[in-house]
Amino acid sequence: MKVVNFWKTLFCSVLAITAFTACSDDDDNGYSGMPEITVNGGEVVTIAGKLAGGKLEQSVEVVSKGDWDLTFKNAGDSQWCTPSAMSGKTGTTTLTFTLGQATAERTAELTLTAYSTFEGIPLKREATIKVVQSDGDIPVGDALYSENCGTKVEKGTDGYWPYVDKFEGWTRGGSLDQSAVAYGGTDASVRNSGAAYQPSDSEKSEVSGAPYVYIGKTSAVFEIENINIGSNNNFTFTFTALDQEKYVSGAPVPAEINTSTVKLAVSIDGGTTYSPVAFTAKKVGTGNWSICTAEFKLPASASTDKISVRFNDYPFTGSSVDGHQGLRLDDFKLFAGGNGPELGGGVVEEYQKVTIDQIKSAGKFEVENATIVGVHQKGVLFAQNNNGTVNYILGFNNDWNTQTANPYIGDIDKTATVKGTSELRIDLYQFSSFEVTVGAASSLQLPAPATFDAAALSAYIASPGVYKYAKISGTLNIEQGASYNTYTIDVTGFSDKKIQIAYGLDSYFNGYADGDVVDVLGFALGYDSSKINIMLRSISKNTTTPAVEITTVPQQFAATSPVAQTLSYTVANTTADQVTFALEGTNADKFSLGTKTDNTIVVNAAGNNTTDAAYTANLVAKVAGVTLASVELKQSASNAKKYVPLAAAPADWSGEYVVGYPDGKVCYILKDKFSGATATRSTFTYDKLESPDFDETNIVYDASYKTITIAKIVGTDFYSIKYGDMYVGWTTSTKNSCEFSTTAPSSSTPDYQWTPTMVDGLIVLTCTTHEAGKANRTLQFNANSGQERFAIYASTQKSVMLYKLQ
Known about the structure:
Elements: H1 6-21, E1 36-39, E2 44-49, E3 54-55, E4 60-65, E5 67-72, E6 81-83, E7 87-88, E8 91-95, E9 97-99, E10 106-118, E11 121-133, E12 145-147, E13 182-186, E14 188-191, E15 212-215, E16 221-228, E17 234-248, E18 251-255, E19 263-267, E20 275-276, E21 280-283, E22 290-297, E23 306-312, E24 326-336, E25 352-353, E26 363-376, E27 379-386, E28 389-396, E29 414-425, E30 428-441, E31 450-451, H2 454-462, E32 468-479, E33 486-491, E34 494-501, E35 517-527, E36 531-541, E37 547-550, E38 565-572, E39 579-584, E40 591-596, E41 600-605, E42 615-623, E43 626-635, E44 641-645, E45 655-663, E46 666-673, E47 681-682, E48 684-689, E49 699-701, E50 708-712, E51 719-723, E52 726-729, E53 738-741, E54 754-759, E55 762-767, E56 778-782, E57 789-793, E58 801-805
Parallel strand pairs: 2-11, 25-26, 28-30, 31-32, 34-36
Antiparallel strand pairs: 1-4, 3-9, 4-8, 5-7, 5-10, 6-9, 10-11, 12-24, 13-16, 14-15, 15-24, 16-23, 17-18, 17-22, 17-24, 19-20, 19-23, 21-22, 26-27, 26-29, 27-28, 29-30, 32-33, 32-35, 33-34, 35-36, 37-38, 38-41, 39-42, 40-41, 42-43, 44-49, 44-58, 45-46, 45-50, 45-58, 46-48, 47-53, 50-51, 51-52, ...
C-alpha cells in the first residue's frame, strides 16, 4: 500500500496556490496563499528618535500579503512608543511612530505578523521593527549596509596591496540585500596593518581591525557604489578612521580626524554627481581610532533605491611634522534614521576650469578644447594653444600595461576635454588620474620642432622642467625584452645619458632594425635621473646622414704591461673607408692606434704608467672631419688604492665607505646626486667599474670617487649616513628618492635613522621610517636596464656592499 505524506502534499498544494495567486490582483480580504511581509524592503528595520520624543520623521513601509497585526515584545514599551496603526490589510501601509519623552536610552521591539489560511490551516510570516530612543551619535541596531573589509588580504605578485576594485574579500553585509554593491576609485587599496594600527581592547566593539581601506595620496578616491536603501529616505552613515601624522621612535602618531581629513559625499544618481556631507568624529576608546558619523536625508523629489558614497581629497603631505602620511578607513555602516539635512541636488565634481598653461600646482582641473598630440603605452599627451604658445600636459595611467590597453591610441590629432588631478612628477605637472572626452579632428598646428642635438640635449638635462616638441636624429637601439622592448636613440656627441622612447608602442617600429639611422619627432617628457623620456609621434629612416657607432666598451688598461684591445664599430649612410680614427684629449700621446678594418680598430696604451694619476684620452671616429662617435680610453695609475668589502658585520659600523653593488665581473659604485650637489631630494648616479678597477672582489682605482660616512646617533642604537655635508634620509613623500638635510640626526628624527645589518654577505641599510603595510625602506641599487641608480626602495632591488679603504 502506498503511503501519502499529508504534510508534504499540503506544502506542495500551498506552493501551487501561491504561484497562482501571485499573478492575480488581491483585494483587501480573503487572501489565500503563503503570507508575506516586509518592512522597508527587508525583514528587520531599525528607526531612531531623540530623548525629547515626539513624532519621528522616519516612517516604515509595510508591504504584506495577508492581514497583519503589530505586537510589542515587551508590553510595557507601548506606554512610550505609539504606532500609527496596530493592524492592517493586504497591500502597502505606511507606519509612523510617536515617542514619549525620556531621560535615558531605550529600545522597543515590535513584531509584525501577516496571516493567511489554507483549508483551515493557519499560516503566518513575521518581520521586526526596532525603535531606538537615544541622544547618542552612533545608531543602535541593524545596519541596512555594513562592510568591514573582510578578514584577509594578500599582496599581489607585484608585491603591492590590491586596489579596492581588485580586492575580492569584501563582505557586503546588512539587513538588506547588498550583493550589488561595487567598490571603486583611484589609488585606494586594501591592506593589512602592523600591531601599531590594530584596535585596542577598548576599541574592538566598534573597530574590526585589518584589513582596511588605505588612502595615501591627495589624488586618491574611494567609492562605495549601489548601496541598497530599500524605501528609506533618512540615514546615518558611520565609519572608523585613523589618520597617521608622523612616526616617533618607529611608532605612528595619529592626527585628529575632522572634516579636513577627508571629504565625504553621497550620490543619488549612480555616481554622476555627488553632494557633500558633513561628519563628526570622536575617539572610540583609548587607542588611535575614531568613529565618524554623518546624517542626511534624500531630497523630497528623489526616487531611488540605491545610493553611492565617496571619500576623496585627503590632504597627503608626507611631512614628518604636523602632516598627513596615510589614512585608514574601515567599518562602513548605513543605518535607517537620523536628523541630518537634505542632500543637495548633486554637486558636479569640483574641477577648476583652466587652460593648460595655468596648471602650475597640484589640484583638480578641467581643460576644454585640448588636442591629443601623442600617446604611449601608459599615457596621453594633451596640447593647447594659449596666447600663441603651444603648451602640453601628460596624462599618465599606470594600469595601462600592455601595447593595446591605452584606449586613445587611435585618437591622435583629435580634440579632447580632459578632467584630472595634477601632480608634480620629475619637475613637470601631469594628470595622475584623468578622464577624457574625445571630439572631432583638431585644427591645432604644432610649432616647428626644436633640434635636439648633443648641445640641446645637455641643455635640456640642465633645465628639464618643460614639455618640448623636438626632432632627434640618431641611431636606433632596440633591446628585446621578455614582456616589452626598450627603444633608445644614440645622438652623436651625447653619450652621458640615455634618450629613451618612453613606453614605446611596438607598432611604431615596424620595419625598423637595431642600428638604423632615424629621424624622430616626439615630445620630451622630462629627465628622470638617468634618461630623457621621449613620447614618439613619428619616426622615419634617415638615409643621408652618416653615422658611426663604436659598439665595444673599452676596458681600462693595466698600469704595467697593457694588452691591446680590438674594438668593433658599425657605420650607416657611409662606408668604412670614409671613417678615420684619432686620439684626442690630455693624455692622447699615452695611447696608440693599431690596425683598422671595415668593422674593427685596435687600440693600446703606449707604455707603462709609472705616475700616481690615471691616463685618459678619447678615441674618436670621424667622417669628413666631423666627429660621429667617441669613447673614453683609460690606463690605471701605478699605485691605485684598494677598497675591500666588509667580510663580517662589525660591532660598530661607524666609518667611511664606498657604496657598491657587485655583479660578477662588474661593480656599480655610488657617485653623485642626480639633481646636483645642493639638492634636498634626489637619487644617486653610479660609476661602472670593471677589470682592472674591479677584480671581482676589491675596488682598485685611482680616481676620487665619493664616499659616505656612517656614524652612531647619540643616545640611540641608530646610525646616520652622511654624503658630503648632508645627511641622507627618507620620508613617505619622497617615493624612491633620498631626503637630504644639513641638520645632524637625533633620537627624534626617525626619517634620518638607519640600521645596518649584514644579510647573505651583503649590507642592508634600513631606514626607521616606512609606509604602513609595506616592507621597510632600504638603500638599494636598481639594476633594471635604463633605471640604474642607488635609491631607497620597499620592493626588492639589489642589496649593496660597503667597501673600506685597506
